[in-house]
Amino acid sequence: MDQERFQKGVNKLKEYTSEEQAQNLVHSDVLKDIAPDLRRFIVEFAYGDIYTRPGLNNKERALVTITTLVTQGVEPQIETHVNRGLTSGLTPNEIVEGMLQLIPYVGFPRVQNALKIVKKVLEQRDLKVEI
Amino acid sequence: MDQERFQKGVNKLKEYTSEEQAQNLVHSDVLKDIAPDLRRFIVEFAYGDIYTRPGLNNKERALVTITTLVTQGVEPQIETHVNRGLTSGLTPNEIVEGMLQLIPYVGFPRVQNALKIVKKVLEQRDLKVEI
Amino acid sequence: MDQERFQKGVNKLKEYTSEEQAQNLVHSDVLKDIAPDLRRFIVEFAYGDIYTRPGLNNKERALVTITTLVTQGVEPQIETHVNRGLTSGLTPNEIVEGMLQLIPYVGFPRVQNALKIVKKVLEQRDLKVEI
Amino acid sequence: MDQERFQKGVNKLKEYTSEEQAQNLVHSDVLKDIAPDLRRFIVEFAYGDIYTRPGLNNKERALVTITTLVTQGVEPQIETHVNRGLTSGLTPNEIVEGMLQLIPYVGFPRVQNALKIVKKVLEQRDLKVEI
Amino acid sequence: MDQERFQKGVNKLKEYTSEEQAQNLVHSDVLKDIAPDLRRFIVEFAYGDIYTRPGLNNKERALVTITTLVTQGVEPQIETHVNRGLTSGLTPNEIVEGMLQLIPYVGFPRVQNALKIVKKVLEQRDLKVEI
Amino acid sequence: MDQERFQKGVNKLKEYTSEEQAQNLVHSDVLKDIAPDLRRFIVEFAYGDIYTRPGLNNKERALVTITTLVTQGVEPQIETHVNRGLTSGLTPNEIVEGMLQLIPYVGFPRVQNALKIVKKVLEQRDLKVEI
User: Which of D131, D29, F118, A128 is nearest to B38 (CA)?
Assistant: First the structure.
């Protein structure tokens, strides 16, 4: 294990989740019995190498991430990253607007399905879209 | 034609292109002989209805747009919207960083192919990435 | 709101659903708290601007719509538009054949998953494929 | 080789191309040195087994085929099947309308790129969209 | 029905499932009321024509199949073909490694979602990844 | 830079290319002016972390890689990895068979377009498919 990159990744992950969630993600990975290195790669490479780069701030990286996930329709990760986006500073309205901006580029279905996930996450976090 | 939405769309399009380019896009559409309403739909709906919404600024909308296009690998539109992103205020570095942020979510190939287009556009505009 | 386009869209939507369902879709949108304009865009742009165009009839537009949704694998919308296709005049057999026609172009999995949705919808509507 | 299915496929293929083109496709396959069975599978399975089924006519099958290809953005096949669609009875206007119908489901870029191919094919065949 | 291709397909299918499962798949198809030819096409064309070809062995064909399904994110078929891959001789570790190999080409989300399915299948079959 | 992972990646890359090509890839990256870290990430993460894992050999990893690229239709990388597959020990026939195996899962167009690239690469390397 690459201790420095891993720690850098954990620190960055905490900015998108919380101290507790980040510890859970790292120590209680549901896939650790079959793919024990997967979580490490996510932490070291995605969070340690990529998310920590200068040039875009946390909110902008969350917006980019949510956008690609909605485009692909990968629903579990949309839910995860709407949560991380909110934690890292995106407002509910910015998340919704980012999805509506996709309509001319991916059509209505992907956007509609993603907004249902946003609705669920906002209810769980007791948040509202300020319009 | 819906004159108000159309004009609103043209005005917004100018913020992403230039007075001259926007006029060209509207008046010299290469597809006007076979689909004369397509350009109008793009101007009225995409630029008039969606891009003009509050909640995200021009730069953020350009970042979202480039992200979905790279995810889909639609190369002619990547070129168009890298140009529009630069005009609307994204720096070369922000565009490149937005693409690198996609590596953990779409893998290297789509990002590599998109960065070749960025390279070409930056050369055409005589711009450099400040690192 | 663009009253004329909206009304034109509602009228077209009724041809794919029913008086009652169209009213429900317009007035009880599940996403109205977070994205109050989404339903309006679907009605005005998709149904008002696009579905009302001459050149293809309702059945043909439903066939095109179902085809793109199966290709993308967006399941909630496959269910919605199999229902709308049946209401607008497609026979169960035409819907099934349209999906089988996709096998050489998308392979078996997408088609198989879509046909399971067709089966469910036909059972709900007490319809059979006449072979 | 399954002579009956193959001949059935060749006969169907002729309805989408011409006697001469069908012979060329079958006898001068560019991939025959590396994958000599590929053309046979296309003729036997796609054209022999699928295209010959009752329930949808040639024009409708062409419309379905073009729709899935535009959704996927596979450009060489869009060109091939716009040609086959025209030969099998789709009008230029029906092909264009089928693509515009996709805007709400795939967004503008895929549709725009496909319409450029339609434009090229119509010019090659000296055809116009009657509007 | 093409008795020879069908029987060849059933025989090959048994190598990926079991005598009993293969009979079930052929005789109790859930889609037989709406698309009675679909199962036949899968058996005759996919298993009879393609899987029986020389050049790659069963394990290699299973690895290729799982890879394309993970790339597309078609989850019901990922489950089916992880099972068939295990029956045809792929080890749990080979399946997991094949998926981790995809990270640089499709990103983490598709791989993570597929590995959750592998985990479920391994538990059902009481198998472990030997690391 | 992580010297150990980088060197491990370069060594692995040489098994898929050649001493000379690997040096060129590392030292003359066409994207180095705009994204100087991209090549490093490919070498360190893709080749250093992933390709070097036990559980699948070089040929199997190349087969998995080619399969996902054909499924996605990313043509520049299909060409690159058909070449790397051949260098790492896949035979022309195995590459072709791997692509034909995809027909039931992605349909004919993606496979046909990929096989044209295989044909070109085999001609450049003066190789033939032994059937």
Answer: D131
**B22 and B49 together in one domain:** yes
- Average pLDDT rounded to a whole number, residues E99-107: 98
Compute CA A48 distance to the chain's CA centroid, rounded to the nearest angstrom.
15
User: Which tokens go with D15?
Assistant: 């309805």
Q: Which of A66, A25, A67 is nearest to A42 (CA)?
A: A25
Residues F40 and F24 in one domain: yes
Range of the domain at C30: 1-53
Number of domains in chain F: 2
Q: Which of F37, F45, F53 lies at the smallest CB-CB distance from A45?
A: F45
- Is the CB of D76 inside 8 Å of chain C's CB atoms? no
Q: How confident is the model at residue F2 (pLDDT cuts 50, 70, 90)?
A: confident
ipTM of the complex: 0.96
Q: Which helix (H) or strand (E) holds F14?
A: helix F3-16
Convert the pLDDT of each residue in C49-80 to its tens digit. Answer: 999 999 999 999 999 999 999 999 999 999 99
Q: A64 and A32 in one domain?
A: no
Question: Is the minimum CB–CB distance between A41 and chain E shorter than 8 Å?
Answer: yes
Element (H, E) at B3: helix B3-16
| Same-domain check for residues D64 and D127 | yes
Instruction: Please report the pLDDT score of residue C128 as a whole number.
Output: 95
In terms of CA atoms, which chain F residue is nearest residue A3? F2
Q: What local confidence, expressed as pLDDT, does residue D1 receive?
A: 61
pTM over 0.90: yes
| Same domain (yes/no): E93, E123 | yes
CATH code assigned at D127: 1.20.1290.10
- Asked whether the beta carbons of residue C108 and residue E37 sit closer than 8 angstroms, the reply is no
Residues E12 and E43 in one domain: yes
pLDDT (tens digit, 9 = 90+) per residue, F50-79?
999 999 999 999 999 999 999 999 999 999
The Cα of A44 is separated from the nearest Cα of chain F by a number of Å equal to: 10
Select from D53, D74, D94 the last residue of a domain. Answer: D53
Phi and psi, residue C57, nearest 5°: -90, 175
